[in-house]
């Protein structure tokens, strides 16, 4: 289960975060005609030592949120405070120094490792970039990192194509750990892996969190996995967070109609309960992030939508103890 470590203060705080990608026309003279509103006004915080799960359908802006927090994408608007410093305002050397404290585990272990580099070079690169270790000391640290993630330390001279998907993801985790970060964005780290390997990687991430006192933003679309690893869960729809609370409250008392629909899609192993349970089937597709619906973005697919939902964007407000929802009907 997720760690029950005591949280001592906020590590990451996101305020009014927006990330728009411009759409341009023309070949020689390009002009902006519109924006893809991938992330459109997020407010949340992540406590030190906790795992915040971020869930939603494909294309809702989860991965963009993670990359914008780490400044891999520069935000269009808003603030990202990491240990009190606004990352959105940092540049150059100052930002580079902060990167030691924040790392990312990517979704695809086949695409995120350079095929021309050995495992030793891949894991050792961050150590050199941040002047942590060189030469013999670097090699020893790389071998130690391989052991930490459950791989043979003598694999340092092998290349990524010699490993299975699960082993490659372990290499990606070792690379993220190399600089001893405080915060790791796990961007769907198990979705490209076999089901039998997924549990191993989840257990490894939990062990590492406890051992190195890590804080995670865990992005996924599999709600059962998120329930297992997360302390709190944020549900995202079309660039906005619609519900945020701790995992027990979310699964026992979901309030937003979209959260209820997502949870109804999780199969229950008991056939008697499964038969009686009501599935909520959402009609239609996710609207375009270029021209999102007016008012509440979910109103075009919501079974509970009323007139105000079409006109007014609901406020993201606290309706219970640490339970936040953006919905007019709740």
* Structural classification: alpha/beta
- The DSSP helix count reads 11
Spatial strand sequence of the major β-sheet: 6-7-8-3-9-10-12-11
Broad shape: globular
Helix and strand sequence: EEEHEEHEHHHEHEHEEHHHHEE
Mean pLDDT: 90
Given as residue ranges, the uncertain stretches (5+ residues, pLDDT < 50) are: 1-6
Distance between the termini: 30 Å
Helix content: 25-40%
- Mind telling me the C-alpha Rg? 21 Å
Could you tell me the strand content as a percent range?
A: 15-25%
How would you explain this protein's 3D organization?
This protein is α/β, with parallel strands linked by helices and 330 residues long. The protein has eleven helices and twelve strands. It has an eight-stranded mixed beta sheet, with helices on both faces. Strands 2-1-4-5 form a four-stranded antiparallel beta sheet. Helix 3 runs parallel beside helix 5, helix 4 crosses helix 5 and helix 5 packs parallel to helix 6. The protein is globular.
Based on the model shown, name its key terms.
330 residues, alpha/beta, 8-stranded mixed beta sheet, 4-stranded antiparallel beta sheet, 11 helices, 12 strands, 25% strand, disordered N terminus
């Amino acid at each position: 289960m997720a760690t029950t470590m005591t949280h001592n203060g906020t590590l990451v705080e996101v305020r009014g975060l927006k990330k728009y990608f411009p759409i341009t026309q023309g070949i020689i003279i390009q002009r902006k005609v519109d924006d893809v509103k991938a992330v459109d006004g997020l407010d949340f915080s992540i406590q030190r030592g906790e795992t915040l799960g971020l869930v939603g359908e494909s294309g809702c802006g989860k991965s963009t949120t993670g990359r914008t927090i780490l400044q891999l994408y520069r935000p269009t608007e808003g603030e990202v405070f990491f240990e009190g410093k606004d990352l959105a305002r940092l540049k150059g050397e100052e930002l580079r120094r902060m990167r030691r404290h924040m790392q990312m585990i990517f979704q695809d272990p086949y695409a995120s490792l350079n095929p021309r580099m050995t495992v030793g070079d891949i894991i050792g690169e961050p150590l050199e970039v941040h002047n942590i270790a060189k030469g013999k000391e670097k090699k020893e640290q790389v071998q130690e990192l391989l052991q930490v993630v459950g791989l043979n330390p003598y694999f340092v001279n092998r290349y990524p194509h010699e490993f299975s998907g699960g082993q490659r993801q372990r290499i990606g985790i070792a690379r993220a750990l190399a600089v001893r970060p405080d915060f790791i964005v796990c961007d769907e780290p198990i979705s490209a892996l076999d089901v039998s390997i997924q549990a191993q990687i989840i257990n490894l991430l939990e062990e590492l969190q406890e051992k190195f006192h890590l804080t995670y933003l865990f992005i996924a679309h599999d709600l059962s996995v998120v329930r297992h690893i997360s302390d709190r869960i944020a549900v995202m729809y079309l660039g906005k967070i619609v519900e945020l609370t701790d995992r027990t409250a979310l699964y026992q008392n979901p309030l937003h109609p979209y959260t209820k629909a997502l949870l109804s899609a999780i199969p229950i192993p008991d056939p008697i309960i499964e038969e009686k349970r009501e599935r909520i089937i959402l009609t239609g597709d996710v609207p375009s992030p270029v021209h999102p619906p007016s008012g509440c973005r979910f109103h075009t697919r919501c079974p509970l939508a009323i007139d105000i939902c079409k006109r007014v964007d609901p406020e993201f407000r606290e309706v219970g103890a640490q339970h936040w929802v953006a919905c007019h009907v709740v």
